[in-house]
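Q: Structure tokens for this one, please.
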Amino acid sequence: MNPDLLESQNNIWRWQALNISWNSKGQLQETTPAIVLIHGFGACKEHWRHNQPLLATKTICYALDLIGFGKSSQPKAKLQGDTSNDGEFQYGFDAWASQVAAFCNEVVKQPVILVGNSIGGVIALKASQLLSENCTSVVLIDCAQRTMDDKRLHEQPYWMQWTRPWLKALVRQRWLSTSLFKNAANVSVIRRVLMQAYPSGRNIDQELISLLQEPSKREGASEAFRGFINIFDDYLATELLQDLKTPVYMIWGEKDPWEPVNEAKNWLSHFQCVRSLEIIKGTGHCPHDEEPEKVNQILLGIIQQAT
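A: Here is the predicted structure, written as tokens:
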């Protein structure tokens, strides 16, 4: 393959009057689905820095920034129950999945394999429903289990159930969400969170810190944070897996501090669409970036199966 074709092509796609930043590497293969990479909360398309170049040697590989993140538009958040105003965006899995599905239909224009990390996994599952047969498979990398959703509130301690209405009212306040966001976007906080997410410490470098921090400096960055922390009743992965016909493959960090691997094992046992679970030893929430060599080999195997 011509090495020049592996160079990233960075573009802006307009969707619902919003700018979507995306890139592609590799070239179209008629017999192989395209890969579309969907990042997690607070991340961006560059979080696939160690995966996209290798995947692009087998087929064209796209990565995009979800609305509110990276270099995509960061519109003002509309919360459930608010009066609609021009230019506002209701952050949630329906909206993000619609963005991904429209991107596949209007930009990719061929069958796809959707690969999602964290909340990107839930988005991939919902987008696969919208795409139907145009999505050949879904890969979940430490998919968000959304334990704080209202539908799982009965699993929480009684005091948490009792204080939920108070919490909901509090986090609706823009002054609080903005303050929380400014603290979370601090370099020292980002580094501490990464040390949790990457228990081996591998690949926590200045490039990673910069790609996570830079979007937080933009004017509307706190709005996506406000929208996300107010998502209390939305899709659970288990709901989407229940009747899904598309094959699902799972990759999981053994030491994920937020999305326990035992739950992934339950999904493997309970959902017919789930074909496999690969556990990456010693890794946390983002094994694709912490141990990319191992994850890339699994992804290449999935691509081969789809050919």
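A few notes: The CA atoms of residues 191 and 209 lie 7 Å apart. The chain is about 40% helix and 20% strand.
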